[in-house]
Design brief:
There is one protein chain. Helix content is 37%, strand content 19%. It is of the alpha+beta class. A nine-stranded mixed beta sheet has the order 10-9-8-11-12-14-13-15-16, with helices on both faces. The relative contact order is 0.07.
Length: 755
């Protein structure tokens, strides 16, 4: 529909509120800006018949019986100075799935111009869409006189997305498309790389020239699918890439007037493209916007709403190329389909949704088809990623791009990765690029300059770490020098307590004191409760919250002949009163005991009451402290049942910080995530009592850790410069002793300190 040309008339209004992305696909998007597309403008009287005629080409199932007119109380006070009324001309909803797109007319107040009313109209419509659960709307803004009008297409803020840079999208598409063309046309990697460089690289194009018709045919009749299409960013990148590649063949083929990038794009959108999404609203918006981009008919049957992970949405169809940016969602957010995902190699109790999408993409490929997935990089080193890592070693993975801790897109919450591959024989080698320059302009050029070949056999299911040779050698050396921490402490490493509802079960100090004031008996079940951010290396933690400690089974064990709620109210009336406000939310927890006020079952609650080492989960540097007061801690901590100051000193050393950075999931801003599974593999040097050299080093580390536990427990505001210098010196002593214990060379020490 050329009269609504979104490519040339897209206007973006900065969204004023941060709203979580709930659409499928575009998984990196967490907050962003709402797209408002200006369609047409005129100074003449609006012709409603003509306007609706244009709308019908975008909304072929428009229900024009769905109408109303609203004014007065239906217009918020902040908009009444500019808007007098608004009217619904019709709406479209799909046959299956919940979605709605409206056609609206907004009239200004007398004397208010369109230019003055436009920004207020945009906010008004967004508020209307959010309030009514409508996905998008065509809007005609007209003045009270009826002379002049502007038309817009507005998406609900609930469909806000972050724009992924074009070079990242195109690179993801290119890798997958190269695999298909290579198989279909028998091209070499060198010829393909030259062809895809669009003139950036000099290459012998003899093969491309000879195979031009064959290549063009493979692109013309390509079957492409984005299995998590979202706002359509990936499929638009693929459309542009295919059009550009076909246009690049014109110099080898007979000249035809219709061999234009515009026509190639339309052929792709109408002949090659398939898409699916679990969000019916996102899919309806996508189809509507595609209809605004082309005069050709968009076939609804190629856009399928549903859950691609559990349903055969395309009835057995396979695709030549799949490129996608799947949604990110923790498993507790899609637990209703958990049982249906157990057949996936990626399945575990906490696997993120994008892992399943990646695996599914390979399952929908034709022989010789290629897949490109843009997703978080956490699968590489996280515990939940072990299934996907193993799955990928069974595939022909040709390329991995790891953005490490570089955030390439403002507004995303995790570093990215790109995986490209096919269902061919498992790879022996893979091209790996670790992106360390946040200012690079084009990822394809960066990959060309910085990629290295890594053997698949060198990658462990336990975590994929892409190291330089000297770093890999040092990691192996450190590993060989000790035994896993899990073995050293005989398996006594545990995650902190997950309440499932901290606002109810982890009240702050002031609330806890009020509860105890009302009923002193409450103190028996209110335990000091630490969060990860309260735990600093060596220091006595500051308690800011308390845990309502009613573990699974305590009610039935203690209530005797009383009813469960009767026992709670009579035994702990102030606690019962506090928890009553949260009954509905607490009842919905998956992790609860026999009753809604109980915590989940946990076999190691008793360990919290003992002396132990506590480690926070989210850190810039590995941190550990010894707790002798029986404090409880939340799920953003790990505890180690040990009072070993030698172990405490090791955990806080530079060497262990270096090791942890190589095996833990990297987060933004140089933080990383330390989970019990990561701690369990730390190589701890066991000390033989007959080796006096090692015994002396152990004593140095123990004494240093004891000294630091006293020094660091002085509040930071009360520390003198002498105390700070004593802290620094004690840490230097420990690091020197650890280096000698693990027999590090001067070069290895330098590598650790400067990593």
């Amino acid at each position: 529909m050329q009269s609504f040309n979104t490519a040339q008339n897209a206007l973006y209004y900065q969204h004023r509120n941060n709203i979580k992305n709930t659409s499928g696909g575009d998984g990196m998007s967490s907050t962003g800006k709402s797209q408002i597309i200006e369609l047409k403008a005129s100074d003449a009287l609006i012709n409603f018949d003509e306007y609706l005629s244009e709308i019908r080409t975008c909304l072929p199932s428009l229900n024009e019986d769905d109408t109303w007119i609203r004014s007065g109380i239906h217009i918020g006070e902040k908009y009444k100075k500019h808007i007098s009324s608004f009217r619904l001309f019709g709406s479209q909803t799909p046959k299956i799935g919940r979605a709605r797109i409206e056609v609206l007319l907004v009239k200004t107040q007398i004397g208010v111009s369109i230019s003055d009313a436009a920004p207020h109209c945009a906010d008004f419509i967004r508020d209307h869409l959010t309030r009514t659960g409508t996905d998008a709307a065509f809007v005609a803004l007209v003045p009270s006189t009826g002379e002049g009008w502007h038309t817009f297409f507005v998406k609900s803020p609930l469909h806000d997305t972050v724009d992924i840079p074009e070079d990242i999208l195109t690179h993801t598409c290119s890798g997958a498309l190269k695999i298909h063309i290579k198989k279909a046309c028998g091209l070499s990697d060198a010829a393909l790389d030259g062809y895809f460089s669009f003139g950036y690289a000099l290459f012998d194009d003899t093969v491309i020239k000879a195979k031009a018709k064959e290549i063009d045919k493979s692109l013309r009749y390509l079957k492409f699918c984005d299995i998590a299409s979202g706002s359509g960013q990936m499929l638009h990148a693929m459309a542009g890439l295919v059009a550009k590649l076909r246009s690049g063949l014109n110099k080898y083929l007979c000249s035809h007037a219709d061999r234009t990038e515009k026509n190639f794009t339309e052929q792709f959108l109408t002949g090659s493209l398939y898409a699916s999404d679990y969000d019916a609203g996102a899919l309806e918006i996508l189809k509507t916007m595609l209809r605004m981009d082309t005069d050709k008919k968009i076939d609804d049957r190629r856009f399928v709403w549903g859950n691609i992970l559990t349903e055969d949405l395309f009835e057995g169809m396979l695709f030549d190329v799949i490129a996608t940016n799947p949604p990110h969602m923790k498993q507790d957010e899609f637990s209703f389909i958990k049982e249906k995902l157990e057949s996936y190699a990626s399945f575990s109790h906490n696997t993120d949704l994008y892992c399943y999408y990646t695996e599914k993409a390979f399952g929908l490929l034709t022989d010789g088809g290629g897949v490109g997935v843009l997703m978080s990089n956490r699968w590489m080193r996280s515990g939940y990623g072990v299934g996907l890592r193993h799955f990928l070693t069974q595939k022909n993975i040709t390329e991995i791009v790891d953005y490490a801790n570089i955030p390439p897109v403002k507004g995303i919450s995790t570093p990215l990765s790109i995986v490209v591959g096919s269902n061919g024989a498992p790879s022996e080698d893979v091209s790996v690029t670790v992106v360390e320059d946040a200012d690079h302009e084009n990822i394809s050029l960066y990959v060309e300059e910085q990629s290295e070949i890594q053997t698949i056999s060198s990658l462990s299911d336990e975590g994929w770490i892409f190291d330089a040779e000297d770093t890999a050698v040092l990691m192996n050396k450190i590993t060989d020098m000790g035994v896993p921490l899990e073995e050293y402490v005989e398996g006594h490493i545990y995650r902190g307590i997950l309440t499932g509802l901290n606002e109810a079960f982890a009240p702050d100090r002031a609330t806890a004191e009020k509860i105890i004031e009302k009923d002193p008996n409450s103190s028996k079940i209110l335990r000091p409760f630490l969060s990860g951010r309260n735990v600093k290396r060596y220091a006595i933690p500051t308690v800011k919250k308390y845990l309502v400690f009613l573990p699974k089974g305590i009610t039935d064990k203690m209530r005797g002949d009383l009813g469960p709620e009767e026992w709670l109210c009579s035994q702990y009336p102030a606690i019962a009163e506090h928890l009553a406000k949260f009954e509905e939310k607490a009842s919905k927890r998956r992790d609860k005991g026999d009753y809604w006020w109980e915590l989940r079952s946990c076999r190691y609650y008793g360990e919290f009451e003992k002396t132990k080492i506590i480690c926070p989960t989210i850190v810039k540097h590995i941190s550990a402290t010894i707790d002798t007061k029986g404090l409880f801690s939340n799920d953003k901590t790990s505890i180690i049942a040990s009072d070993d100051f030698y172990l405490l000193g090791l955990l806080n050393s530079n060497l262990m910080d270096f090791y942890m950075r190589r095996i833990c999931t990297e987060l933004l801003n140089e933080h990383y995530e330390v989970k019990p599974a990561n701690l369990s593999v730390l190589p701890i040097k066991k000390i033989s009592p007959t080796n006096s050299f090692h015994v002396n080093l152990k004593t140095e580390i123990e004494n240093g850790a004891m000294k630091l536990s006293k020094l660091c427990s002085v509040h930071e505001k009360e520390r003198t410069e002498d105390i700070n210098e004593d802290i620094r010196e004690a840490e230097r002593v420990i690091n020197r002793a650890v280096a000698r214990l693990y027999r590090l060379s001067a070069g290895e020490i330098s590598l650790i300190e400067n990593y």
